[in-house]
Write a structure and sequence with these properties.
The chain is α/β, with parallel strands linked by helices. The chain contains 12 helices and 7 strands. Strands 3-2-1-4 form a 4-stranded parallel beta sheet, with helices on both faces. Helix 5 runs parallel beside helix 6. The radius of gyration is 19 Å and the shape is globular. It starts with a helix and ends with a helix.
């Protein structure tokens, strides 16, 4: 066994031990790499009847993410359901200030807490150790209401999550990160269903062109495309199709961010402020 294999095995053991102390759990399951690993290991460790995976459905969840969450649940035999969350009904959420994610997680916990309570379970979120270093008010809000973060508690970073997922043969090991659609909207710009819909349509069109790992940031009638640095030239090569795709979603101006894809980079405005 290599050093890397031993590290992966140790991380898995730490995660399993933490889950066994919880006994029964409700996993917030978006289908991304983090929540997928958490749900699968919980399922394999605790058994189907003690693990419930729940996908929260709202305008901020892209349709293809919901479809893949459903597919994963079916492939792995998860006890899976969807619930509707109502963060869009909150003016505090729609105003989109630095605490937007806290209002979102409160809306999620409003739904998950009664479900977990009925099953004598603990709510789990797929938060990894790297997430703890960023501006994540949603994590604070969820933790204050009793949610646990087993990945972070086991010390698993994003790289660890991917390595462990690959070790377990999960197809999510290299799945691009896919934060909620509201994360594409700069702080101070109101979050509306029409804005989220435009972002979703534009990103889906770009994904059909082969750009799986991307963010489209919404600035009114201007779209700012972020892709990894090694894909910048590909966007320029497909410039005409890219422009047509984004304009078809309702944007007038299409720009390419030369700094490339940076997860959570809209938080820079908070630091600059």
């Amino acid at each position: 066994m290599t050093v890397g294999d031993r590290v992966v095995a140790s991380g898995l053991e730490d995660l399993q031990r933490g889950l066994m102390t919880l006994d029964r759990v409700v996993v917030a399951f978006s289908g991304g790499a983090d929540s997928a690993l958490l749900a699968r290991v919980a399922h394999d460790t605790l058994g189907t009847e003690r693990v419930r995976a729940i996908t929260a459905v709202s305008p901020s969840l892209a349709g293809d993410q919901l479809a893949d969450a459903a597919a994963l649940a079916g492939e792995w035999g998860l006890r899976w359901t969807t619930v509707e969350t109502h963060e869009m009904e909150s003016a505090a959420y729609r105003v989109n200030d630095a605490h937007r994610c806290a209002h979102c997680k409160d809306a999620l916990m409003d739904i998950l807490e009664p479900i977990a309570g009925a099953e004598g379970a603990t709510v789990l979120l797929g938060v990894n150790a790297d997430d703890l270093t960023d501006h994540r008010p949603g994590q604070v809000a969820a933790e204050a209401r009793g949610a646990r973060f087993p990945l972070a508690e086991a010390g698993l970073t994003k790289a660890d999550v991917r390595a462990l997922s690959r070790h377990l043969g999960l197809r999510t090991w290299d799945k691009p990160a896919a934060a909620c659609l509201a994360s594409r909207v700069p702080y101070g710009t109101e979050v509306t269903v029409s804005v989220l819909s435009a972002v979703e349509r534009a990103e889906a069109a770009l994904q059909r062109l082969g750009f799986d790992d991307l963010r489209l940031r919404h600035y009114g009638d201007t779209a700012r495309i972020e892709v990894p640095l090694d894909r910048l030239a590909d966007v320029l090569e497909a410039r005409r199709k890219v422009v047509e795709a984004v304009r078809a979603a309702g944007y007038l101006y299409v720009t390419l961010d030369l700094e490339g894809l940076r997860s959570g980079n809209l938080n820079q405005a908070l630091d600059d402020g």
